[in-house]
């Protein structure tokens, strides 16, 4: 269903020694959409991501994934449910090839992530799926290239491929365009749009052109609170958003 909510927070709050980093955040992400979380530095975006993926425990509030309360769960258990943050498995091995990196991620998905001692025949059973994933992210020609030798944008695509190897329902992408030039941004943006046909995506992204072109829904955070939510066209007309974010940093 188009209106099915895959991820929801209710009053999500995180305090650090009296400092309120995230305050009473209610977030609802629809299944099959690209949902962006934006805001100025210090708005609480990364803290929200850490709360959603359980690297931090909320001080108050609830987090629901597919209707299930995951507030008290551990990060690995949440990932097994299909809610995966890109960096959880995106630290690619620089001296392994693209194919080998995806194969390691597939081994992890099957419970054998560090079985490097296994026979080549056993490991090769992952090759077919690994090549499919590389093809999905446009990296077929880099299958035998060590990650360290790949262009930066292609390396980020490899990180997404290793994320997809965990067979998620929902992906959280933390600044996927960080450090990229225009050509790489265009390629990775096209990749994110393509994979959104199969996966729900929640992303933190500072590049507002990317946010405008990709996002179905945008939530604006400031000082740890939700300031506004809607599509890009609506938010650009909101004077509060202009003052807090778009007017200060819009390129």
What does this structure look like?
The chain is an alpha/beta fold and 251 residues long. It folds into two domains: 166 residues, Rossmann fold, CATH 3.40.50.300; 78 residues, no CATH class. It is built from eleven helices and ten strands. The strands form two sheets. It has a six-stranded mixed sheet with strand order 6-7-8-3-9-10, with helices on both faces. Strand 7, helix 8 and strand 8 form a beta-alpha-beta unit. The protein is globular and about 55 Å long. The model has no long low-confidence stretch (mean pLDDT 88).
Keywords:
2 domains, single chain, alpha/beta, 251 residues, 6-stranded mixed sheet, 4-stranded antiparallel sheet
Q: Name the structural class.
A: alpha/beta
The CATH class of the largest domain turns out to be Alpha Beta
CATH superfamily of the largest domain: P-loop containing nucleotide triphosphate hydrolases
The end-to-end span amounts to: 36 Å
Widest sheet, order of strands:
6-7-8-3-9-10
What is the CATH architecture assignment of the largest domain? 3-Layer(aba) Sandwich
The main β sheet shows up as: 6 strands, mixed
- How large is the radius of gyration? 19 Å
CATH topology descriptor of the largest domain: Rossmann fold
Uncertain segments of ≥5 residues (pLDDT<50)?
Answer: none
- Report the mean per-residue pLDDT as an integer: 88
Number of strands: 10
């Amino acid at each position: 269903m188009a209106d099915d909510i895959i991820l929801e927070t209710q009053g999500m709050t995180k305090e650090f020694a009296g400092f309120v980093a995230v305050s009473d955040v209610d977030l609802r992400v629809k299944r099959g959409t690209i949902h962006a979380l934006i805001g100025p530095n210090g708005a609480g975006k990364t803290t929200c991501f850490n709360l959603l993926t359980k690297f931090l425990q909320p001080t108050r509030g609830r987090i629901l994934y597919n209707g299930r309360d995951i507030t008290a769960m551990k990060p690995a258990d949440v990932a097994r449910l299909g809610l995966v943050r890109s960096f959880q498995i995106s630290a690619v091995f620089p001296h392994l090839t693209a194919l080998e990196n995806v194969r390691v991620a597939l081994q992890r998905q099957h419970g054998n992530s560090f079985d490097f001692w296994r026979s080549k025949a056993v490991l090769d059973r992952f090759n077919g799926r690994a090549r499919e994933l590389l093809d999905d992210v446009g990296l077929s020609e880099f299958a035998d290239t060590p990650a360290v030798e790949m262009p930066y944008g292609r390396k980020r695509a490899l990180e997404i491929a290793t994320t997809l190897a965990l067979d998620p329902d929902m992906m959280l992408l933390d600044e996927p365009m960080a450090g990229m030039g225009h050509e790489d941004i265009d390629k990775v943006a096209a990749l994110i749009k393509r994979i959104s046909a199969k996966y729900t995506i929640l992303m933190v992204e500072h590049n507002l052109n990317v946010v405008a072109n990709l996002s179905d829904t945008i939530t604006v955070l400031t000082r740890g609170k939700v300031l506004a939510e809607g599509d890009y066209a609506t938010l650009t007309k909101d004077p509060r958003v202009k003052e807090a974010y778009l007017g200060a940093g819009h390129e």
